[in-house]
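Practice problem: predict the structure.
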Amino acid sequence: MRLHIYKAFLVCSVLITGDIYSLKTSWMNLVKLKYFIISLVFAAVTFNAYGQQRRVDNLTYFDDRPLHFGFYLGLNTMDYRITNYNNVFENPVFIGNNDLETNANLLKDYKKSFTTEVYQILPGFTVGGVINYRLTRDFDLRFTPGMSLGSRSFKYFIKIDPKVYDKSGIDENTYLTTPSAYVDIPVGIRYKGFRHHNARPYIYLGAAYRQDLENKRITESVVHLKKNGGYAEIGLGIDSYLEYFRFTAEFRFSYGFSNLIRHDSDPDKPIPYYGYIFKELNSNIFTLIFYFE
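Answer:
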């Protein structure tokens, strides 16, 4: 009987001890949970206070100015839209010019039908200034003159005459790079959306005239290009109102509607017959612009 009582006492002791240990463990977990909750509340209060601070509207009267100025920096990529003749001798420059076709017949890799395409799109740089005139609450007139540096590469699917690439350094595999240094004269209208705290989206529509200052000495040995042209432009961007200035990021697409090919046969600057494969050559420019106003 005493033995059974002793066993029961031992079992109760173990159970009580285990419960005490469990209670102790639970209490420690509760303490840890309490500190964790306090940390979360503190972090939430801190972030909320920071958010309240960030939501302070900056430069609230900036858009009311009738005129303001700024500058911009940007990155660009230049591309061509190419239309080729089905037969190179369909080019009107060959009318009354039989010598060029006769000389072409003497070439080892002579072909009448071939194509060209843009081989590689290379990054470029854009810089300029901003003159912004406020028309209404939602519309601005923008004049953003600047300069764009970039280049494009052609690939001819025909071997270039050794007489050409030996003198100019052009690759035998018919890769031809055309560098450009444009003077940009764009004018456009900007329609602004509603301002939400320190952000305001907008859409830009405009036109631009560009004059290429690049000499194009190597390019002129293969193809004759015009150095100026007109563009239609569309852009999307967001104004960010900072404490001391307005920062804007804009993506702009420039669609060239001028044919850059010169259909001529300048005797002072002769080119090989395959340089006349182009029927039309139009320019596209994609630009990511950062404004500081």
